[in-house]
Specification:
Layout: E1 7-11, H1 18-29, E2 32-35, H2 37-49, H3 57-63, E3 69-73, E4 79-83, E5 86-87, H4 95-104, H5 108-124, E6 127-131, H6 134-138, E7 144-149, H7 152-165, H8 172-188, E8 201-204, H9 210-225
Parallel strand pairs: 1-6, 1-7, 2-6, 7-8
Antiparallel strand pairs: 3-4, 4-5
Helix pairs in contact: 1-9, 2-4, 7-8
The protein binds 2'-deoxycytidine-5'-monophosphate.
The site of 2'-deoxycytidine-5'-monophosphate has 15 residues, from helix 2, helix 4 and helix 8.
C-alpha cells in the first residue's frame, strides 16, 4: 500500500515546547522527528571550541568548510548529532550553547550551509521538523505548517522547571531574560527570521497542558494532511 507523503513544519519561539510535542506526535504518527535547532547548536559549539565570537560572521563563515556536521536517526527514532565524527548530542544541550546557536544562526552563510541537509530529510521520508524558518524557508511547500507559541512568562516557567529537574537550576529572572533575548535575536535577524508563515495554523499552548497540546497538534496535522 502506498503511504501518503507529507511534511509537518513546526515553528515557534524558544521554549514553546516544540521538541517535546514533536517527539510525541512523531511517535503517534510513525514519522521522523527532525530537530533543526540541533544543527545550529553544532555550529555554535564548533565556534566556541575554536574560540570564535559567534557574532563574527566572517570568522564563523571561514570555519564552515572545515566542518563535518552529520545528523543520524537511530532505529529508535532518536536524533544524534556528530561533529567531525564525534557524538556531540549531549554537549550541544549545555545552556551556554543556546546563545552561541542563536548568534551563529543569524549569518546567511550558516543557513545556506545547512539548508540542503534539512530539505533532503523531508524528501526521503515523512517528517515533523521543528525550527524557526521551516514553514517559511526550508519547506515552504510543507503540507502542514504549525506556529507553536505560548506567552514568554509561561515558556520561562516551563524552562525553569525543566532546568531544575535536570539538576542544572537557574534563577527564574535569568531564564526569562535569556528567553526574551533569544526571542529578540531570532525575530530580528535579517535572514530567515522567526515569523509565522501566512498559511500556518497558530497553536497557543499558554493555557494547555502536555496532553491537550499534543491532541491539538495531532488534530491540526490530521485535518491538514488529510490522514
Ligand atoms: O530550537 P533550539 O533552541 O535548539 O535552537 C537553537 C537556536 O538555533 C535558536 O536560538 C535559533 C536557531 N534556529 C534557527 O535559527 N533556525 C532553526 N530552524 C532552528 C533553530
Amino acid at each position: 500500500m502506498e503511504t501518503k507523503h507529507y511534511a509537518v513544519a513546526l515553528d515557534g519561539p524558544s521554549g514553546a515546547g516544540k521538541s517535546t510535542l514533536a517527539k510525541a506526535v512523531a511517535k503517534e504518527l510513525g514519522i521522523m522527528y527532525v530537530d533543526t535547532g540541533a544543527i545550529y547548536r553544532v555550529i555554535g559549539l564548533a565556534a566556541r571550541r575554536s574560540g570564535i565570537k559567534p557574532r563574527d560572521e566572517a570568522a564563523v563563515t571561514a570555519l564552515l568548510p572545515s566542518l563535518d556536521v552529520r545528523m543520524e536517526h537511530g532505529t529508535d527514532g532518536v536524533q544524534r548529532m556528530y561533529l567531525g565524527g564525534e557524538d556531540v548530542s549531549d554537549e550541544i544541550r549545555l545552556p551556554e550553547i543556546s546563545m552561541y546557536a542563536s548568534a551563529v544562526s543569524a549569518h546567511a552563510p550558516v543557513r545556506t550551509f545547512l539548508l540542503e541537509m534539512q530539505r533532503k530529510l523531508a524528501r526521503e521520508q515523512n517528517v515533523i521538523m521543528d525550527g524557526r524558518d521551516i514553514g517559511t524557508v526550508v519547506l515552504p511547500d510543507a503540507e502542514v505548517k504549525i506556529f507553536l507559541t505560548a506567552d514568554v512568562e509561561v515558556r520561562a516557567k516551563r524552562r525553569f522547571l525543566e532546568l531544575e529537574q535536570r539538576g542544572t537550576p537557574k534563577p527564574y529572572d535569568e531564564v526569562l531574560a535569556e528567553l526574551r533575548e533569544r526571542d529578540w535575536n531570532d525575530t530580528h535577524r535579517d535572514v530567515a527570521p522567526l515569523r509565522e508563515a501566512e498559511d500556518a495554523v497558530r497553536a497557543d499552548t499558554s493555557n494547555l497542558d502536555f496532553e491537550q497540546s499534543t491532541a491539538l497538534i495531532l488534530q491540526i496535522i490530521r485535518e491538514r494532511a488529510g490522514l
